[in-house]
Automatic annotation (TrEMBL):
<comment type="similarity">
    <text>Belongs to the 11S seed storage protein (globulins) family.</text>
</comment>
<dbReference type="GO" id="GO:0045735">
    <property type="term" value="F:nutrient reservoir activity"/>
</dbReference>
<dbReference type="InterPro" id="IPR006045">
    <property type="entry name" value="Cupin_1"/>
</dbReference>
<keyword id="KW-0708">Seed storage protein</keyword>
<dbReference type="Pfam" id="PF00190">
    <property type="entry name" value="Cupin_1"/>
</dbReference>
<protein>
    <recommendedName>
        <fullName>Cupin type-1 domain-containing protein</fullName>
    </recommendedName>
</protein>
<keyword id="KW-1015">Disulfide bond</keyword>
<dbReference type="InterPro" id="IPR006044">
    <property type="entry name" value="11S_seedstore_pln"/>
</dbReference>
<dbReference type="InterPro" id="IPR014710">
    <property type="entry name" value="RmlC-like_jellyroll"/>
</dbReference>
<keyword id="KW-0758">Storage protein</keyword>
<dbReference type="InterPro" id="IPR011051">
    <property type="entry name" value="RmlC_Cupin_sf"/>
</dbReference>
<feature type="domain" description="Cupin type-1">
    <location>
        <begin position="121"/>
        <end position="269"/>
    </location>
</feature>
<dbReference type="InterPro" id="IPR050253">
    <property type="entry name" value="Seed_Storage-Functional"/>
</dbReference>
Length: 306
């Protein structure tokens, strides 16, 4: 299965008479949540989406400086990004953020087994693998609980402070079953064809299913934090991001991004430079309104039902 990062939305009629929808996965998300994830104005997101031309294949200008060698480099960079920085399990290998939002080693080193035994692991007692002003992330994989390798399953616990965001992100090797432990927020899911598959307000006690290859955005409400536990269908789930320090867009040449999205370098710079200092969890922008006691939620006990 594949999907497109760039391109306009379009509908065509297949041979069997069925309508076929194709377009960038970005069209499957609302403008306001994309603006929140990238920390840009909604008008900038609208310009990005409305400027895209063509579907699936984007024709470059005849004078484009992009050579076959450059295209080869793009493929290699994208592959390197996916294998080294976008693997959610590797966020625990020194790619986590400290509580000040600065890049630094995490306290748990997720690929190293911690005390707990083959079948029992205290997920709510371990140090967070990613921690910044937006929240905390705890990972559970086959390295921490070897029995998961036999089950082909994994899990993670996520705590988002009010207004914090995770995504857009998708998993290439696992389905995710997300249970809302407490709080409330909003979840959007975009299908591989660029259509919106879900846009829902979620509350404690609800369950959301995110299929493999379906991109998702999770946002905590402005009034209270959001805490979830997710079970994955892989003991080493792999995820890719379109925002934050591990965004795939940040590792693509400027010419490729500007031509693919049909935007100028000034607008592209806004999407590339924002959120460079945070990984996975994106704190609410300081310019998006007043925040309740900036550290109250983060330092409070976020004990769960685990």
């Amino acid at each position: 299965m594949h999907f497109h990062l760039a391109g306009s939305s379009s509908t065509s009629t297949a041979a069997a008479g069925h309508q076929k929808y194709t377009g960038s996965i970005l069209h499957g998300f609302s403008r306001d949540l994309l603006a929140k994830a990238w920390d840009v104005d909604v008008s900038h997101v609208e310009r990005l989406l409305q400027s895209q031309q063509g579907s699936a294949i984007v024709e470059l200008p005849s004078r484009s400086a992009i050579s076959p060698a450059t295209c080869h480099t793009v493929v290699n960079q994208a592959a390197l990004t996916w294998t080294t920085t976008s693997t959610i399990s590797q966020l625990a290998m020194g790619l986590g953020d400290d509580v000040n939002g600065e890049q630094g080693p995490s306290s748990a080193f997720g690929l190293l087994p911690l005390p707990g035994g083959e079948h029992v692991y205290k997920l709510d007692r371990s140090s967070a693998d990613v921690a910044n002003k937006g929240g905390k992330l705890w990972l559970l994989n086959e390295h921490r609980m070897p029995a998961l390798r036999q089950l082909g399953m994994g899990a993670y616990r996520l705590f988002l402070r009010p207004g914090a965001v995770v995504g857009p992100a998708w998993s290439v090797n696992a389905h995710h079953i997300v249970y809302i432990i407490r709080g409330k927020g909003r979840v959007q899911i975009a299908g591989p064809d660029g259509r919106n598959e879900l846009d829902a307000e979620v509350r404690a006690g609800q369950v959301v299913a995110i299929p493999r290859f379906f991109a998702a955005l999770k946002v905590a409400s402005e009034e209270e934090p959001l805490e979830i536990i997710s079970v994955t269908s892989s003991s080493m789930p792999l995820s890719s991001f379109l925002s934050g320090s591990t965004s795939l867009l940040k590792n693509m040449p400027l010419d490729v991004v500007t031509h693919a999205f049909n935007i100028d370098s000034e607008l592209e710079e806004k999407f590339r430079e924002k959120r460079r200092e945070v990984t996975a969890i994106l704190p609410q922008s300081q310019s998006s309104g007043s925040q309740k006691d900036s550290w109250t939620w983060f330092l409070s006990d976020s004990s769960s039902l685990l």
